[in-house]
């Protein structure tokens, strides 16, 4: 099975193609440009560079959130369009799950953090077993970093833009318990979305495009004002 994956939860936009043998291609770009300006161009470059056509794909995976409201909408609408055009299945991967997989086989707990603005982060807490299986200890949430750090009582690896923004606070509150992933492992990756998506599609986990929506966790400003 060969799939194309899209990750647009942060400013880092990425597209990857993977099959059971491994990663075929990945394009990542972390610049101040909207995903709507570059996403289709990146998809085209990844397909052309790998010599693969849309008809050769067996399905799609998309990072479903939490993250940037606009980025998630663009990523999901693009995947829906491709799936409709090719009549191929979609699977949705939680953003924080994929980000945590940047640090597999960690002996410490893993805490991905994305900037949620308003002095809050999107975060969760994970643990990897010796054979690489990951379990979620605390489910995805939006909270102040101060509140979430009270839940951590043992060595933990932090990663993500939120962890960078609140790095000094994390070090101040946790001291020697706080560890930080290398720069190359800090940002979301479509390759991780592809790997998790490939497993999901093989196991038959398919989403209905008609009802699939981003996993925002927090209400948008428009929804807050409306309520």
From the alpha carbons, calculate the radius of gyration and give it in angstroms. Answer: 17 Å
Could you tell me the mean pLDDT? 93
Number of strands: 10
Strand content: 25-35%
Widest sheet: strand ordering: 3-2-1-4-5
Order of helices and strands: EEEHEHEHEEEHEHHEHH
Q: From the helix content, strand content and strand pairing, which structural class follows?
A: alpha/beta
Structure write-up:
This protein has 227 residues and is an alpha/beta fold. Helices cover 34% and strands 31% of the residues. The protein is built from eight helices and ten strands. The strands form two sheets. Strands 3-2-1-4-5 form a five-stranded mixed β-sheet, with helices on both faces. Strands 8-7-6-9-10 form a five-stranded mixed β-sheet. A hairpin with a 4-residue loop joins strand 1 and strand 2. Helix 1 crosses helix 2 (69-86). The mean pLDDT is 93.
Tell me the layout of helices and strands.
Elements: E1 2-7, E2 12-19, E3 22-30, H1 35-50, E4 59-65, H2 69-86, E5 90-94, H3 95-100, E6 109-117, E7 120-128, E8 134-143, H4 145-149, E9 156-159, H5 161-165, H6 167-174, E10 178-180, H7 190-202, H8 221-226
Parallel strand pairs: 1-4, 4-5, 6-9, 9-10
Antiparallel strand pairs: 1-2, 2-3, 6-7, 7-8
TL;DR?
The protein has eight helices and ten strands. With 227 residues, it is an alpha/beta fold.
Descriptive terms for the model:
single chain; 227 residues; alpha/beta; five-stranded mixed sheet; 8 helices
């Amino acid at each position: 099975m060969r799939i194309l994956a899209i990750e647009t939860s942060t400013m880092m936009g990425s597209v990857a193609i993977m099959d059971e043998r491994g990663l075929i291609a990945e394009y990542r770009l972390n610049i101040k440009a909207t995903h709507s300006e570059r996403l289709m161009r990146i998809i085209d470059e990844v397909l052309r560079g790998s010599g693969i056509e849309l008809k050769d794909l067996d399905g799609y995976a998309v990072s479903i959130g939490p993250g940037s409201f606009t980025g998630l909408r663009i990523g999901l609408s693009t995947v829906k369009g491709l799936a409709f055009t090719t009549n191929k299945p979609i699977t949705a991967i939680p953003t924080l799950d994929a980000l945590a997989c940047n640090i597999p086989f960690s002996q410490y707990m893993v805490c991905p953090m994305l900037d949620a603005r308003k002095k809050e982060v999107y975060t969760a807490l994970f643990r990897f077993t010796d054979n690489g299986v990951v379990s979620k200890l605390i489910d995805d949430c939006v909270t102040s970093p101060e509140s979430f750090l009270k839940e951590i009582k043992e060595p933990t690896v932090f990663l993500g833009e939120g962890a960078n923004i609140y790095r000094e606070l994390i070090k101040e509150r946790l001291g020697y318990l706080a560890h930080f992933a290398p720069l190359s492992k800090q940002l979301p990756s479509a390759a991780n979305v592809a790997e998790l998506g490939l497993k999901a599609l093989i196991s038959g986990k398919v989403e209905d495009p008609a009802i699939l929506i981003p996993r925002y966790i927090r209400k948008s400003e428009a929804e807050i004002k409306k309520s």
